[in-house]
Amino acid sequence: MQLILKFYSGLKFSKYQVIAAVVFVLFCILISFKLNLTNHIPLPTWKNAQGNAPQFLIKNAVSFTDTSIIDEKSILVMQIPSSGSGKVYIFDFRSSQLCGTGGCVYPMYHERGKLLLLLIANPNLPPKEDLIKISDTVNQGFPCLVITQNTTIYNMVSHIQYCYESGKYARFNESLTSI
Length: 179
Fold this sequence. Notes:
With 179 residues, the chain is α+β, with helices and mostly antiparallel strands. 23% of the residues lie in helices and 38% in strands. It has helices spanning 2-9, 15-39, 55-63; strands at 46-48, 76-80, 88-92, 99-100, 103-110, 115-121, 132-139, 142-150, 156-165, 168-178.
């Protein structure tokens, strides 16, 4: 150990070598931080629709059903960003009357008002499983979505990928994962 310390204590660095080393380390840290940010896909979260979605979209989403069974103040929305193709909004009505044995109704709209998908999904999932995730795959400017659902197989969930194709979201593939 003393030999190692003696070796390093004998090294002499010029002021410019120290500055170059510090600049190099800072450059490496910044590059790794930048790469980390560009590879990070934000997790979508449910927020109150009032104030987080255009009012006309909320009205569109509610219009396909009996408005007396929906409290507009309790509607949640998840905003999905795209690559320059506009935002996508998924609505959760939070109404048991819009749920059945297969799950609950989740309409997905483009920010211009076009219905892209009417999804029926069961939100009752095992812990640490998200109903909706954004995929790394992008098609026609829109990210694919992965919908997680329970299966009849013990300790297995299904991940169903929906991708944008020809003006709407369509089911693309499915995979099973153990939990």
